[in-house]
Amino acid sequence: MIMRKNANFHPGRVFSDTKWILPFFASMLVSVTLILVTLFWPLSSPNGGDQLPFDIISFSRSEDSSGYFVESDIRRSLEVKGDSNMEAPRLAYLISGTKGDSQRMMRTLQAVYHPRNQYILHLDLEAPPRERLDLTMSVKAEPTFREVENVRVMAQSNLVTYKGPTMIACTLQAIAILLKESLEWDWFLNLSASDYPLVTQDDLLHVFSNLSRTLNFIEHTKITGWKLNQRAKPIVIDPGLHLSKKSDIFWTTQRRSLPTSFKLFTGSAWVMLTRSFVEYCILGWDNLPRTILMYYTNFISSPEGYFHTVICNTEEFRNTAISHDLHYIAWDNPPKQHPLSLTIKDYDKMVKSGAPFARKFAKDDPVLDKIDKELLGRINRFAPGAWCVGNSDGGADPCSVRGNDSIFRSGPGAERLQEQTQKLLSEEYQSNQCS
């Protein structure tokens, strides 16, 4: 019975299955032909007309899958902008302050102002609403700012704790605003109300006109020794992330192990970063910037580690990191943890350093007047440059009339800065990049 059942198969069914083989292969042949025609069809019409109104993905590098994704388009666009040296550079500044700093912020802004640049001011939430309003009105009252429209006051005030991640959050927000509202700047710099320039913007822009726009000035070193135990392993909480009133960070009882997917670096919180790098931190085509940002949310002194760790763990940027923060700072000795306030007695050392900026200064310290007079030539509102073409007779403000902002009048400050940058770009100095 079983044998008979197994032997009772139907030849007609076999025939009905195999009769589809020929049509199947025929349809496959047609499909492959259509795909090949689509892939290799010329991008322009035979009569030399316009390009087809849709994009065709190139498969010329079949071994590299990165060309299939939108992230590769972002990467290529950043590379193009990073190598663009066709015109004079433009800088983007973040100037930040807290309660009682609005006048100091305006003084620093006027000292570093240039029509080519972009400026964004952030007065944190600890300052009373009246002071933030006064700062906004001071900016609006300046005729040059109104005409050029390159100075902004952040409408949203954030709590900022220097040792916690709130400073990084505020910096990234400022960068995002600058990226959204301005397409024309090459480097991002962060200054505080206690910073002040030692060279004019003409000096700075003149020197950086001759530098590659792929260079990031960020003092950095690998975290070793006591810092691993006291900074990397503790878990801290920044109340500024959760509360509406500023208080110092506090430590939890838990500790964590060191990360294994990236190496930790530390350095100065004051940086001069390329547009392409900060775009990567905001729009990163991989998840590394966000992963590191989450790690530094509970890290002591995260402003001294976030950008440093990102840049030194990213192949595209690690060789662009120049380990200098472009500041003159006098540290306590030992252990070089707190900057000393600069005074007249530090003036000669500041000048000889060749740094374009210095910190920190007490409010209205007399040394600032000396810097204005002898280094910046600042008498009225702005440190004058070649863009100031008005009459200066009788103490009139030459910057009341604007000329060509792509012409720079360099002076002794440019010579000092040029000597310093040559030293920073030497092979001996660069041998310590991200090491």
TrEMBL record:
The protein's name: Beta-glucuronosyltransferase GlcAT14A
Subcellular location, record wording: Membrane
Classification via PANTHER family: CORE-2_I-BRANCHING BETA-1,6-N-ACETYLGLUCOSAMINYLTRANSFERASE FAMILY PROTEIN, GLYCOSYLTRANSFERASE
InterPro entries with a match to the protein in the record: GLCAT14A/B/C, Glyco_trans_14
Membrane topology: Single-pass type II membrane protein
Lineage: Eukaryota, Viridiplantae, Streptophyta, Embryophyta, Tracheophyta
Keywords: Glycoprotein, Glycosyltransferase, Membrane, Transferase, Transmembrane, Transmembrane helix
Pfam family for this entry, one: Branch
Main location, first listed in the record: membrane
Residues annotated as transmembrane: 20-43
Origin: domain of life: Eukaryota
